[in-house]
Amino acid sequence: MERNVWFSLGAEQMQSESPRVLLVEPFYGGSHKQLIDLLQENINGCSVFTLPAKKWHWRARTAALYFSQTIPACPTYRVLFSSSVLNLCELVALRPDLAHLKKVLYFHENQLIYPVRKDQDRDFQYGYNQVLSCLVSDVVVFNSQFNMDSFLSSILSFMKKIPDHRPKDLEQLIRPKCVVLNYPVQFPDVSRLLPKHKLVCQQVKHCPDEPPPSWEHDKNPELFFSTLLKLKEKQLDFQVSVLGETFTDVPEVFAEARRLLNCHILNWGFLPSKEDYIRVLCQADVVVSTAKHEFFGVAMLEAVHCGCYPLCPKALVYPEIFPAEYLYSTPEQLFKHLQGLCRRPNIARGHIVKVDTSSFTWVSLKQRFETLLASTGP
Fold first, then answer.
1. 110, 146 in Cβ contact below 8 A?
2. pTM, whole model, 2 decimals?
3. CATH 3.40.50.2000-classified regions of the chain
4. Superfamily of domain 202-358, CATH level 4
């Protein structure tokens, strides 16, 4: 739902309640929505403008023009905060009154390395827009060190796609503006949902994050399901929950895996409520990621919060968050880890994961976000 917040207040109210922070989100769904809502609830003086989370490609192309016509002029604005889906360069060009604000750009992901099936399928414009947005921003914020490093280190090679008259020194211009500020995860209270003992059978849960529609392949379901089929061939005892929203372009491997693993499936697909989702996590023993891309990984942290033993690739953002004992480098290592846990499930059930999820909460990150949205300072 589009949320336009308008103000018509008396003079006394205007002094204390005038909007100071302009929050703009072209893709108001998933983690993007959660962050905007969290900031609005906890930062005083926010005015919010959003577009529904669908037609991602069109949002990236045209949202700036829409917002230039719908955001009213307001002399009290001091800070503009937006995700990198917005072409910030276009917005401030169309609305010069917004150009003087402290402009903060938040990267949930970056389009310079976002996986596509074939490199020729990559639309140059999306990454180019993000680079332009960085150039006009005052602060560029990334949700992880991996996200920042992968973006900055890819600018030069990305710009080589321009046939001639290429711009120079863009990384050097952008890097001084960049900071890492983790996404604040809203972990639920799971004390009443955690079982006194774990299930008799091993559960493995694959947690896709929230990719734009038709990009399910970036979570590498082929590796996940082939590993489970090897466990089945070994006649190991396990149950699996595969959770996530189903989009129109679903890889064929899902239907085949569902048929071949039928007797091992405990949950499949989208659950009707967040509590149902959390309940499954609390009953599970192990959470697995086979992602080809991950810039932060909310779903994995949620699973760890619910007591799951994590297994993640030794790549992407995961080494930032998870100690080496939870990382695998090859498909063979993933299989051996899971095989061992299926044969000795108490290893996972009695293990306390060495990840402090509290450091990723709003309580821990609030002060840094307040500083970020102050009219002065980084």
1. no
2. 0.87
3. 202-358
4. Glycogen Phosphorylase B; (3.40.50.2000)
